[in-house]
Design goal:
The complex is a heterodimer of chains A (about 100) and B (about 500).
Chain A: H1 5-14, H2 21-38, H3 73-77, E1 83-84, E2 87-88
Antiparallel strand pairs in A: 1-2
Chain B: H1 9-17, H2 23-41, E1 44-47, H3 49-64, E2 75-79, H4 106-113, E3 117-122, H5 161-168, E4 174-179, H6 185-191, E5 194-197, E6 217-222, H7 225-235, E7 265-269, H8 279-294, E8 298-302, H9 310-325, H10 343-354, H11 357-370, H12 376-398, E9 403-407, H13 422-426, H14 433-438, E10 442-449, E11 455-462, H15 467-481
Parallel strand pairs in B: 2-3, 2-4, 7-8, 7-9
Antiparallel strand pairs in B: 1-3, 4-6, 5-6, 5-10, 9-11, 10-11
The chains are: A mainly alpha (about 100), B alpha/beta (about 500).
Chain lengths: ~100, ~500
Protein backbone atom coordinates (compact mmCIF):
# COMPACT_ATOMS: atom_id res chain seq x y z
CA UNK A 1 0.00 0.00 0.00
CA UNK A 2 1.18 3.52 -0.62
CA UNK A 3 -0.09 7.00 0.13
CA UNK A 4 -0.70 9.90 -2.24
CA UNK A 5 -0.43 13.61 -1.57
CA UNK A 6 -4.07 13.99 -0.58
CA UNK A 7 -3.86 11.10 1.89
CA UNK A 8 -0.78 12.65 3.46
CA UNK A 9 -2.60 15.95 3.87
CA UNK A 10 -5.61 14.18 5.37
CA UNK A 11 -3.41 12.22 7.81
CA UNK A 12 -1.58 15.44 8.77
CA UNK A 13 -4.98 16.91 9.55
CA UNK A 14 -5.86 13.92 11.73
CA UNK A 15 -2.49 14.24 13.47
CA UNK A 16 -3.06 18.00 13.90
CA UNK A 17 0.21 18.92 12.24
CA UNK A 18 0.17 21.84 9.82
CA UNK A 19 1.99 21.00 6.57
CA UNK A 20 2.37 23.09 3.43
CA UNK A 21 2.38 21.56 -0.06
CA UNK A 22 6.16 21.24 -0.27
CA UNK A 23 6.35 19.50 3.10
CA UNK A 24 3.46 17.19 2.22
CA UNK A 25 5.20 16.32 -1.04
CA UNK A 26 8.43 15.44 0.77
CA UNK A 27 6.56 13.45 3.42
CA UNK A 28 4.72 11.44 0.76
CA UNK A 29 8.00 10.02 -0.51
CA UNK A 30 9.34 9.32 2.98
CA UNK A 31 6.16 7.70 4.22
CA UNK A 32 5.99 5.48 1.15
CA UNK A 33 9.56 4.33 1.76
CA UNK A 34 8.62 3.33 5.30
CA UNK A 35 5.35 1.71 4.22
CA UNK A 36 7.27 -0.17 1.55
CA UNK A 37 9.67 -1.40 4.21
CA UNK A 38 6.93 -2.69 6.52
CA UNK A 39 5.25 -4.44 3.60
CA UNK A 40 7.64 -7.36 4.23
CA UNK A 41 5.16 -8.47 6.88
CA UNK A 42 2.88 -9.68 4.07
CA UNK A 43 5.20 -12.70 3.79
CA UNK A 44 4.32 -13.86 7.30
CA UNK A 45 1.47 -16.28 7.81
CA UNK A 46 -0.42 -15.11 10.88
CA UNK A 47 -3.45 -17.39 10.54
CA UNK A 48 -4.63 -18.40 13.98
CA UNK A 49 -2.03 -16.23 15.76
CA UNK A 50 -3.27 -14.13 18.65
CA UNK A 51 -2.15 -10.49 18.59
CA UNK A 52 0.23 -9.55 21.38
CA UNK A 53 -1.46 -7.68 24.20
CA UNK A 54 1.29 -7.90 26.82
CA UNK A 55 4.86 -9.24 26.70
CA UNK A 56 4.59 -10.26 30.35
CA UNK A 57 1.85 -12.70 31.20
CA UNK A 58 -0.03 -10.84 33.83
CA UNK A 59 -3.45 -9.84 35.00
CA UNK A 60 -3.96 -6.12 34.95
CA UNK A 61 -3.56 -4.78 38.45
CA UNK A 62 -6.48 -2.88 39.87
CA UNK A 63 -6.53 -0.37 42.67
CA UNK A 64 -9.35 0.48 45.03
CA UNK A 65 -11.91 2.75 43.40
CA UNK A 66 -11.20 5.82 45.48
CA UNK A 67 -9.33 9.10 45.41
CA UNK A 68 -5.63 8.46 45.86
CA UNK A 69 -4.15 11.80 44.95
CA UNK A 70 -5.05 15.35 44.08
CA UNK A 71 -5.85 18.71 45.57
CA UNK A 72 -3.19 20.69 43.77
CA UNK A 73 -4.76 22.33 40.75
CA UNK A 74 -2.16 25.11 40.93
CA UNK A 75 0.61 22.59 40.28
CA UNK A 76 -1.34 21.00 37.43
CA UNK A 77 -1.61 24.29 35.55
CA UNK A 78 1.81 25.63 36.54
CA UNK A 79 3.41 24.52 33.26
CA UNK A 80 0.56 25.65 30.98
CA UNK A 81 1.52 28.35 28.48
CA UNK A 82 -1.66 30.25 29.38
CA UNK A 83 -3.78 29.69 32.48
CA UNK A 84 -6.17 31.65 34.64
CA UNK A 85 -7.56 30.87 38.11
CA UNK A 86 -6.35 27.26 37.89
CA UNK A 87 -8.00 26.77 34.49
CA UNK A 88 -6.23 26.01 31.21
CA UNK A 89 -7.04 28.79 28.77
CA UNK A 90 -7.70 28.09 25.07
CA UNK A 91 -9.09 30.06 22.13
CA UNK A 92 -12.87 30.29 22.09
CA UNK A 93 -14.40 26.92 21.12
CA UNK A 94 -18.16 27.57 21.40
CA UNK A 95 -19.73 30.71 19.94
CA UNK B 1 41.57 15.75 41.50
CA UNK B 2 40.38 14.96 37.97
CA UNK B 3 41.46 11.32 38.28
CA UNK B 4 38.47 10.71 40.57
CA UNK B 5 36.41 10.63 37.38
CA UNK B 6 38.42 7.59 36.27
CA UNK B 7 36.90 5.44 39.00
CA UNK B 8 34.11 2.98 38.42
CA UNK B 9 31.06 3.20 40.67
CA UNK B 10 32.23 0.12 42.57
CA UNK B 11 35.66 1.70 43.17
CA UNK B 12 34.25 5.09 44.13
CA UNK B 13 31.80 3.45 46.53
CA UNK B 14 34.61 1.60 48.32
CA UNK B 15 36.88 4.64 48.48
CA UNK B 16 34.08 6.87 49.75
CA UNK B 17 33.40 4.31 52.47
CA UNK B 18 37.12 4.24 53.31
CA UNK B 19 37.08 8.10 53.50
CA UNK B 20 39.78 8.38 50.82
CA UNK B 21 37.87 11.41 49.55
CA UNK B 22 34.48 13.00 50.10
CA UNK B 23 31.33 12.86 48.00
CA UNK B 24 31.71 16.60 47.55
CA UNK B 25 35.21 16.15 46.09
CA UNK B 26 33.94 13.44 43.76
CA UNK B 27 31.04 15.61 42.58
CA UNK B 28 33.32 18.62 42.09
CA UNK B 29 35.63 16.49 39.94
CA UNK B 30 32.75 15.58 37.66
CA UNK B 31 31.39 19.14 37.55
CA UNK B 32 34.90 20.24 36.55
CA UNK B 33 35.04 17.60 33.82
CA UNK B 34 31.67 18.77 32.50
CA UNK B 35 32.77 22.40 32.62
CA UNK B 36 35.82 21.64 30.51
CA UNK B 37 34.46 18.90 28.25
CA UNK B 38 30.78 19.49 27.58
CA UNK B 39 31.18 22.27 25.06
CA UNK B 40 32.88 19.90 22.64
CA UNK B 41 30.56 16.94 23.25
CA UNK B 42 27.16 18.61 23.90
CA UNK B 43 26.21 15.66 26.11
CA UNK B 44 24.55 17.74 28.84
CA UNK B 45 21.79 20.16 27.94
CA UNK B 46 21.34 21.30 31.56
CA UNK B 47 23.91 21.09 34.36
CA UNK B 48 22.46 21.04 37.89
CA UNK B 49 25.53 22.00 39.90
CA UNK B 50 23.60 23.42 42.85
CA UNK B 51 21.49 20.29 43.25
CA UNK B 52 24.56 18.08 42.85
CA UNK B 53 26.51 19.98 45.53
CA UNK B 54 23.55 19.85 47.89
CA UNK B 55 23.09 16.11 47.37
CA UNK B 56 26.83 15.47 47.75
CA UNK B 57 26.84 17.39 51.01
CA UNK B 58 23.96 15.25 52.28
CA UNK B 59 25.86 12.15 51.19
CA UNK B 60 28.92 13.25 53.13
CA UNK B 61 26.75 13.62 56.23
CA UNK B 62 25.32 10.13 55.70
CA UNK B 63 28.78 8.63 55.24
CA UNK B 64 30.06 10.43 58.36
CA UNK B 65 27.11 9.05 60.32
CA UNK B 66 27.85 5.53 59.07
CA UNK B 67 24.53 5.44 57.22
CA UNK B 68 25.73 5.24 53.62
CA UNK B 69 23.11 3.99 51.15
CA UNK B 70 23.92 1.80 48.11
CA UNK B 71 24.71 4.72 45.74
CA UNK B 72 25.83 7.22 48.34
CA UNK B 73 27.53 10.17 46.67
CA UNK B 74 27.73 8.61 43.19
CA UNK B 75 27.37 11.35 40.52
CA UNK B 76 25.02 10.41 37.69
CA UNK B 77 23.77 12.04 34.50
CA UNK B 78 20.03 11.78 33.87
CA UNK B 79 18.56 11.41 30.40
CA UNK B 80 16.27 14.36 29.61
CA UNK B 81 13.38 11.92 29.23
CA UNK B 82 13.09 11.43 33.02
CA UNK B 83 10.88 13.87 34.89
CA UNK B 84 13.02 15.59 37.51
CA UNK B 85 11.20 17.93 39.85
CA UNK B 86 11.80 21.57 39.03
CA UNK B 87 14.50 20.71 36.48
CA UNK B 88 14.62 20.85 32.65
CA UNK B 89 12.61 17.85 31.31
CA UNK B 90 11.83 18.05 27.60
CA UNK B 91 12.90 14.75 26.02
CA UNK B 92 14.96 17.22 23.97
CA UNK B 93 11.89 18.46 22.11
CA UNK B 94 11.03 22.07 21.31
CA UNK B 95 7.37 21.31 22.04
CA UNK B 96 8.10 20.90 25.77
CA UNK B 97 9.79 24.32 25.96
CA UNK B 98 10.27 25.42 29.52
CA UNK B 99 8.66 22.33 31.05
CA UNK B 100 9.76 21.79 34.64
CA UNK B 101 7.80 18.95 36.24
CA UNK B 102 6.17 19.28 39.64
CA UNK B 103 7.01 15.64 40.31
CA UNK B 104 9.89 13.18 40.19
CA UNK B 105 10.03 10.02 38.06
CA UNK B 106 10.03 6.78 40.04
CA UNK B 107 13.42 5.70 38.65
CA UNK B 108 15.20 8.95 39.57
CA UNK B 109 13.47 8.98 42.97
CA UNK B 110 14.73 5.42 43.56
CA UNK B 111 18.26 6.54 42.66
CA UNK B 112 18.11 9.59 44.93
CA UNK B 113 16.64 7.50 47.77
CA UNK B 114 19.74 5.32 47.43
CA UNK B 115 22.04 8.35 47.71
CA UNK B 116 22.84 9.16 44.06
CA UNK B 117 23.84 12.68 43.00
CA UNK B 118 22.37 14.30 39.85
CA UNK B 119 24.89 16.24 37.75
CA UNK B 120 22.43 17.33 35.08
CA UNK B 121 20.16 16.36 32.21
CA UNK B 122 21.55 14.57 29.18
CA UNK B 123 20.96 15.16 25.50
CA UNK B 124 18.99 12.59 23.48
CA UNK B 125 17.14 12.17 20.22
CA UNK B 126 13.84 14.05 20.33
CA UNK B 127 11.30 11.87 22.20
CA UNK B 128 13.89 9.04 21.93
CA UNK B 129 13.25 8.77 18.19
CA UNK B 130 16.60 8.28 16.50
CA UNK B 131 19.76 6.20 16.36
CA UNK B 132 22.38 8.94 16.10
CA UNK B 133 21.33 11.76 18.42
CA UNK B 134 20.86 13.99 15.37
CA UNK B 135 17.16 14.66 16.03
CA UNK B 136 17.60 16.54 19.34
CA UNK B 137 16.30 20.11 19.45
CA UNK B 138 19.51 20.88 21.36
CA UNK B 139 21.86 19.79 18.59
CA UNK B 140 24.01 16.77 17.92
CA UNK B 141 25.95 14.94 20.60
CA UNK B 142 29.55 14.15 19.68
CA UNK B 143 31.11 10.77 20.37
CA UNK B 144 34.38 11.00 22.36
CA UNK B 145 35.69 8.27 20.04
CA UNK B 146 37.26 9.22 16.69
CA UNK B 147 38.58 7.11 13.85
CA UNK B 148 42.35 6.58 14.21
CA UNK B 149 44.29 9.60 13.04
CA UNK B 150 41.24 11.70 12.16
CA UNK B 151 39.38 14.56 13.79
CA UNK B 152 36.05 13.86 12.10
CA UNK B 153 33.15 14.08 14.55
CA UNK B 154 31.19 10.85 14.94
CA UNK B 155 27.73 10.24 16.37
CA UNK B 156 27.42 8.49 19.75
CA UNK B 157 24.37 6.52 18.59
CA UNK B 158 20.92 7.13 19.94
CA UNK B 159 18.57 7.77 21.34
CA UNK B 160 20.56 7.78 24.62
CA UNK B 161 23.47 9.53 22.88
CA UNK B 162 24.10 12.07 25.63
CA UNK B 163 24.15 9.30 28.22
CA UNK B 164 26.61 7.18 26.25
CA UNK B 165 28.90 10.07 25.33
CA UNK B 166 28.98 11.42 28.91
CA UNK B 167 29.79 8.00 30.37
CA UNK B 168 32.50 7.27 27.78
CA UNK B 169 34.07 10.71 28.31
CA UNK B 170 33.92 10.45 32.13
CA UNK B 171 31.50 13.37 32.48
CA UNK B 172 29.49 11.22 34.92
CA UNK B 173 30.07 7.95 36.78
CA UNK B 174 27.11 6.44 34.90
CA UNK B 175 23.82 7.58 33.44
CA UNK B 176 20.18 6.71 33.17
CA UNK B 177 18.99 5.85 29.68
CA UNK B 178 15.92 4.29 28.08
CA UNK B 179 15.41 1.72 25.37
CA UNK B 180 12.41 1.34 23.04
CA UNK B 181 14.13 -0.38 20.08
CA UNK B 182 17.81 -0.28 21.03
CA UNK B 183 18.30 3.19 22.52
CA UNK B 184 20.47 1.94 25.39
CA UNK B 185 22.38 -0.86 23.70
CA UNK B 186 23.19 0.77 20.34
CA UNK B 187 24.78 3.93 21.82
CA UNK B 188 26.58 1.79 24.43
CA UNK B 189 28.08 -0.26 21.59
CA UNK B 190 29.11 2.84 19.63
CA UNK B 191 30.89 4.41 22.62
CA UNK B 192 32.60 1.41 24.25
CA UNK B 193 30.28 1.47 27.27
CA UNK B 194 28.01 -1.12 28.89
CA UNK B 195 24.23 -0.78 28.85
CA UNK B 196 21.32 -2.99 29.79
CA UNK B 197 17.67 -2.86 28.80
CA UNK B 198 15.95 -4.89 31.48
CA UNK B 199 12.82 -6.98 31.07
CA UNK B 200 9.69 -4.97 30.27
CA UNK B 201 8.10 -4.23 33.64
CA UNK B 202 11.33 -4.43 35.65
CA UNK B 203 11.51 -0.64 36.11
CA UNK B 204 8.59 1.70 36.57
CA UNK B 205 7.89 3.91 33.57
CA UNK B 206 6.17 6.50 35.74
CA UNK B 207 7.63 9.93 35.03
CA UNK B 208 9.42 8.83 31.86
CA UNK B 209 8.28 10.80 28.82
CA UNK B 210 6.33 8.14 26.89
CA UNK B 211 7.33 7.11 23.35
CA UNK B 212 5.90 3.61 22.78
CA UNK B 213 4.42 2.38 26.02
CA UNK B 214 4.50 -1.36 25.30
CA UNK B 215 8.22 -1.18 24.42
CA UNK B 216 9.78 1.59 26.56
CA UNK B 217 11.99 0.47 29.40
CA UNK B 218 14.43 2.28 31.68
CA UNK B 219 17.99 1.11 32.14
CA UNK B 220 21.53 2.28 32.90
CA UNK B 221 24.62 2.99 30.81
CA UNK B 222 27.88 2.60 32.72
CA UNK B 223 31.53 1.85 32.22
CA UNK B 224 31.46 -1.73 33.53
CA UNK B 225 29.12 -4.68 33.83
CA UNK B 226 29.32 -4.45 37.63
CA UNK B 227 28.36 -0.76 37.59
CA UNK B 228 25.29 -1.67 35.53
CA UNK B 229 24.39 -4.34 38.10
CA UNK B 230 24.72 -1.83 40.95
CA UNK B 231 22.55 0.74 39.16
CA UNK B 232 19.82 -1.60 37.97
CA UNK B 233 19.36 -2.86 41.52
CA UNK B 234 18.46 0.69 42.56
CA UNK B 235 16.43 1.61 39.47
CA UNK B 236 14.16 -1.45 39.44
CA UNK B 237 11.02 -1.52 41.56
CA UNK B 238 7.35 -2.32 41.49
CA UNK B 239 5.30 0.86 41.49
CA UNK B 240 1.60 1.44 42.07
CA UNK B 241 1.84 4.36 39.61
CA UNK B 242 2.75 2.03 36.70
CA UNK B 243 0.45 -0.96 36.44
CA UNK B 244 2.87 -2.62 33.99
CA UNK B 245 5.69 -2.66 36.54
CA UNK B 246 6.08 -6.18 37.83
CA UNK B 247 5.84 -7.25 41.44
CA UNK B 248 8.84 -9.57 41.58
CA UNK B 249 11.76 -9.34 44.00
CA UNK B 250 14.78 -7.40 42.68
CA UNK B 251 17.82 -9.64 43.12
CA UNK B 252 21.16 -8.27 44.24
CA UNK B 253 22.56 -8.30 40.70
CA UNK B 254 26.13 -7.81 41.90
CA UNK B 255 26.01 -11.32 43.38
CA UNK B 256 26.03 -12.69 39.82
CA UNK B 257 29.33 -11.00 38.98
CA UNK B 258 32.20 -13.46 38.97
CA UNK B 259 30.02 -16.58 39.05
CA UNK B 260 31.15 -19.35 36.70
CA UNK B 261 29.24 -19.90 33.49
CA UNK B 262 30.41 -23.51 33.22
CA UNK B 263 27.73 -25.69 31.66
CA UNK B 264 25.59 -22.74 30.68
CA UNK B 265 23.91 -23.07 27.28
CA UNK B 266 24.49 -20.06 25.01
CA UNK B 267 22.37 -19.80 21.88
CA UNK B 268 23.76 -18.42 18.61
CA UNK B 269 20.83 -17.44 16.39
CA UNK B 270 21.60 -18.24 12.76
CA UNK B 271 19.25 -15.50 11.49
CA UNK B 272 21.57 -12.83 12.91
CA UNK B 273 24.13 -13.64 10.22
CA UNK B 274 22.84 -10.96 7.88
CA UNK B 275 23.89 -9.89 4.42
CA UNK B 276 25.90 -6.71 4.22
CA UNK B 277 27.23 -6.88 7.77
CA UNK B 278 30.98 -6.07 7.88
CA UNK B 279 33.30 -9.02 8.36
CA UNK B 280 34.68 -7.38 11.50
CA UNK B 281 31.30 -7.74 13.20
CA UNK B 282 31.13 -11.40 12.25
CA UNK B 283 34.71 -11.92 13.51
CA UNK B 284 33.90 -10.19 16.80
CA UNK B 285 30.91 -12.46 17.24
CA UNK B 286 33.10 -15.53 16.67
CA UNK B 287 35.58 -14.15 19.20
CA UNK B 288 32.77 -13.79 21.73
CA UNK B 289 31.71 -17.37 21.10
CA UNK B 290 35.30 -18.52 21.68
CA UNK B 291 35.55 -16.61 24.98
CA UNK B 292 32.36 -18.14 26.33
CA UNK B 293 33.37 -21.61 25.18
CA UNK B 294 36.70 -21.17 26.94
CA UNK B 295 34.83 -20.24 30.11
CA UNK B 296 33.00 -23.55 29.97
CA UNK B 297 29.75 -22.59 28.29
CA UNK B 298 28.09 -24.87 25.80
CA UNK B 299 27.49 -23.15 22.46
CA UNK B 300 24.43 -24.17 20.46
CA UNK B 301 23.10 -22.88 17.18
CA UNK B 302 19.48 -21.82 17.47
CA UNK B 303 16.85 -20.48 15.12
CA UNK B 304 14.76 -17.37 15.71
CA UNK B 305 12.92 -17.55 12.38
CA UNK B 306 10.95 -14.30 12.67
CA UNK B 307 14.00 -12.10 13.34
CA UNK B 308 13.83 -10.23 10.04
CA UNK B 309 10.24 -9.21 10.67
CA UNK B 310 10.95 -7.60 14.03
CA UNK B 311 12.09 -4.26 12.58
CA UNK B 312 9.19 -3.82 10.12
CA UNK B 313 6.70 -4.81 12.85
CA UNK B 314 8.39 -2.35 15.19
CA UNK B 315 7.92 0.45 12.65
CA UNK B 316 4.19 -0.11 12.87
CA UNK B 317 3.80 -0.69 16.62
CA UNK B 318 6.15 2.04 17.84
CA UNK B 319 4.83 4.87 15.64
CA UNK B 320 1.24 3.82 16.36
CA UNK B 321 1.82 4.06 20.10
CA UNK B 322 3.86 7.25 19.65
CA UNK B 323 1.09 8.97 17.68
CA UNK B 324 -1.25 8.25 20.56
CA UNK B 325 1.21 9.23 23.33
CA UNK B 326 2.25 12.44 21.60
CA UNK B 327 -1.36 13.58 21.16
CA UNK B 328 -0.99 15.24 24.57
CA UNK B 329 1.30 17.92 23.14
CA UNK B 330 -1.33 20.37 22.05
CA UNK B 331 -0.16 23.73 23.33
CA UNK B 332 -2.66 23.68 26.19
CA UNK B 333 -1.22 21.94 29.22
CA UNK B 334 2.51 22.46 28.94
CA UNK B 335 5.31 23.64 26.73
CA UNK B 336 5.12 25.53 23.49
CA UNK B 337 2.02 27.27 22.17
CA UNK B 338 1.84 28.86 18.73
CA UNK B 339 -1.38 30.86 18.32
CA UNK B 340 -3.89 30.28 15.53
CA UNK B 341 -7.26 31.66 14.45
CA UNK B 342 -9.12 28.91 16.26
CA UNK B 343 -8.26 26.04 18.59
CA UNK B 344 -7.59 23.54 15.80
CA UNK B 345 -5.23 25.91 14.05
CA UNK B 346 -3.52 26.53 17.39
CA UNK B 347 -2.98 22.77 17.76
CA UNK B 348 -1.71 22.45 14.19
CA UNK B 349 0.64 25.42 14.39
CA UNK B 350 1.98 24.32 17.77
CA UNK B 351 2.71 20.78 16.64
CA UNK B 352 4.17 21.94 13.32
CA UNK B 353 6.63 24.23 15.11
CA UNK B 354 7.25 22.00 18.14
CA UNK B 355 8.00 18.62 16.56
CA UNK B 356 11.09 17.89 14.47
CA UNK B 357 11.01 16.02 11.15
CA UNK B 358 11.62 12.51 12.51
CA UNK B 359 8.93 12.90 15.18
CA UNK B 360 6.47 14.21 12.58
CA UNK B 361 7.25 11.25 10.31
CA UNK B 362 6.53 8.77 13.06
CA UNK B 363 3.39 10.51 14.27
CA UNK B 364 2.16 10.52 10.65
CA UNK B 365 2.94 6.82 10.14
CA UNK B 366 1.26 5.99 13.43
CA UNK B 367 -1.81 8.04 12.61
CA UNK B 368 -2.06 6.40 9.20
CA UNK B 369 -1.72 2.79 10.39
CA UNK B 370 -4.32 3.37 13.09
CA UNK B 371 -6.76 5.21 10.82
CA UNK B 372 -10.10 3.70 9.84
CA UNK B 373 -9.75 0.81 7.39
CA UNK B 374 -6.02 0.21 7.99
CA UNK B 375 -5.95 -0.96 11.62
CA UNK B 376 -6.24 -4.69 10.78
CA UNK B 377 -3.80 -4.60 7.87
CA UNK B 378 -1.07 -2.87 9.86
CA UNK B 379 -1.37 -2.67 13.63
CA UNK B 380 -3.21 -5.93 14.26
CA UNK B 381 -0.94 -7.80 11.87
CA UNK B 382 2.18 -6.33 13.50
CA UNK B 383 0.97 -7.38 16.95
CA UNK B 384 0.45 -10.93 15.62
CA UNK B 385 3.98 -10.95 14.22
CA UNK B 386 5.11 -9.79 17.62
CA UNK B 387 3.52 -12.88 19.18
CA UNK B 388 5.56 -15.00 16.76
CA UNK B 389 8.78 -13.18 17.66
CA UNK B 390 8.16 -13.83 21.34
CA UNK B 391 7.39 -17.49 20.59
CA UNK B 392 10.79 -17.78 18.87
CA UNK B 393 12.47 -16.76 22.11
CA UNK B 394 10.17 -18.93 24.24
CA UNK B 395 11.16 -21.94 22.14
CA UNK B 396 14.84 -21.23 22.77
CA UNK B 397 14.29 -21.06 26.53
CA UNK B 398 12.24 -24.28 26.41
CA UNK B 399 15.17 -25.95 24.67
CA UNK B 400 17.34 -25.07 27.66
CA UNK B 401 19.13 -22.01 26.31
CA UNK B 402 20.28 -19.74 29.17
CA UNK B 403 21.23 -16.68 27.11
CA UNK B 404 21.68 -15.65 23.49
CA UNK B 405 24.82 -14.01 22.07
CA UNK B 406 24.64 -11.67 19.05
CA UNK B 407 26.38 -8.54 17.79
CA UNK B 408 24.79 -5.35 19.16
CA UNK B 409 24.91 -3.26 15.99
CA UNK B 410 25.51 -3.86 12.29
CA UNK B 411 28.45 -1.39 12.29
CA UNK B 412 30.55 1.05 14.30
CA UNK B 413 29.91 4.77 14.87
CA UNK B 414 29.34 6.90 11.75
CA UNK B 415 29.55 10.61 10.98
CA UNK B 416 26.60 12.97 11.37
CA UNK B 417 24.83 13.47 8.07
CA UNK B 418 26.23 10.20 6.73
CA UNK B 419 22.88 8.40 6.92
CA UNK B 420 20.01 10.47 5.51
CA UNK B 421 17.50 7.81 4.50
CA UNK B 422 15.17 7.00 7.43
CA UNK B 423 14.96 3.26 6.71
CA UNK B 424 18.77 2.92 6.50
CA UNK B 425 18.97 4.68 9.88
CA UNK B 426 16.36 2.29 11.30
CA UNK B 427 18.63 -0.65 10.36
CA UNK B 428 20.89 0.33 13.27
CA UNK B 429 18.39 -1.38 15.56
CA UNK B 430 18.13 -4.59 13.54
CA UNK B 431 19.81 -6.74 16.25
CA UNK B 432 18.39 -4.94 19.30
CA UNK B 433 14.73 -4.43 18.43
CA UNK B 434 13.79 -8.11 18.83
CA UNK B 435 14.33 -7.91 22.61
CA UNK B 436 11.91 -4.97 22.88
CA UNK B 437 9.30 -6.70 20.76
CA UNK B 438 9.50 -9.80 23.00
CA UNK B 439 9.96 -7.84 26.25
CA UNK B 440 13.12 -9.76 27.18
CA UNK B 441 16.29 -8.21 28.67
CA UNK B 442 19.30 -7.34 26.50
CA UNK B 443 22.75 -6.04 27.38
CA UNK B 444 25.56 -4.61 25.25
CA UNK B 445 29.17 -5.16 26.30
CA UNK B 446 32.14 -3.60 24.47
CA UNK B 447 34.14 -6.45 22.96
CA UNK B 448 36.68 -5.03 20.53
CA UNK B 449 37.75 -2.30 18.14
CA UNK B 450 37.31 -2.17 14.39
CA UNK B 451 40.09 -1.39 11.90
CA UNK B 452 39.55 2.34 12.46
CA UNK B 453 39.94 1.94 16.20
CA UNK B 454 36.23 2.34 16.98
CA UNK B 455 34.47 0.23 19.62
CA UNK B 456 32.09 -2.61 18.75
CA UNK B 457 29.70 -4.35 21.09
CA UNK B 458 28.30 -7.80 21.67
CA UNK B 459 24.76 -8.28 22.86
CA UNK B 460 23.43 -10.81 25.34
CA UNK B 461 19.69 -11.51 25.36
CA UNK B 462 18.17 -13.26 28.37
CA UNK B 463 15.04 -14.84 29.70
CA UNK B 464 12.37 -12.60 31.18
CA UNK B 465 13.49 -11.33 34.61
CA UNK B 466 16.79 -13.18 34.33
CA UNK B 467 19.01 -10.09 34.16
CA UNK B 468 21.29 -11.86 36.66
CA UNK B 469 22.47 -14.30 34.01
CA UNK B 470 23.27 -11.41 31.66
CA UNK B 471 25.50 -9.83 34.32
CA UNK B 472 27.12 -13.22 34.94
CA UNK B 473 27.89 -13.87 31.26
CA UNK B 474 28.57 -10.20 30.50
CA UNK B 475 31.29 -10.08 33.12
CA UNK B 476 33.02 -13.04 31.40
CA UNK B 477 33.06 -11.11 28.10
CA UNK B 478 34.31 -7.98 29.84
CA UNK B 479 37.11 -9.90 31.55
CA UNK B 480 38.17 -11.48 28.27
CA UNK B 481 37.87 -8.36 26.11
CA UNK B 482 39.17 -5.82 28.59
CA UNK B 483 37.80 -2.31 28.85
CA UNK B 484 37.96 0.29 26.12
CA UNK B 485 38.70 4.01 26.45
CA UNK B 486 39.13 6.66 23.74
CA UNK B 487 42.85 6.94 23.00
CA UNK B 488 43.13 10.63 23.84
CA UNK B 489 41.06 13.15 25.76
CA UNK B 490 40.65 15.79 23.04
CA UNK B 491 37.38 17.20 24.35
CA UNK B 492 38.62 18.85 27.57
CA UNK B 493 39.61 22.48 27.32
Amino acid sequence: MSVDLNTVKRVAGLARIKVDDAQAEKMTGELNTILGFVEQLDEVNVDGVEPMTSVVETTMKKRADGQSDGGYADKIVSNAPVHEDNFFTVPKVVE
Amino acid sequence: MTDLTKLTIAEARDKLAARDFTATELTESYLGAIESGNEALNAYIAVTGDIAREQAKASDAKIAAGEARPLEGIPLGIKDLYATKGVHTQACSHILDGFKPEYESTVTQNLFDDGAVMLGKLNMDEFAMGSSNETSFYGNVVNPWRRNGTETALVPGGSSGGSASAVAAHLCAAATASDTGGSIRQPAALTGTVGIKPTYGRCSRWGMVAFASSLDQAGPIGRTVRDNAILLKSMASVDAKDTTSVDAPVPNYEDFIGKSIKGMKIGIPKEYHMDGIPEEIEALWQQGIAWLKEAGAEIVEISLPHTKYALPAYYIVAPAEASSNLARYDGVRYGLRVPGNDIVEMYENTRAAGFGDEVKRRVMIGTYVLSAGYYDAYYLKAQKVRTLIKQDFDNAWTDGVDAILTPTTPDAAFAPGEITDPVTMYMNDVFTVTANMAGVPGMSIPAGLNKDGLPLGLQLIGKPFDEGTLFQVGEVIEQAAGRFEPSANWWSK
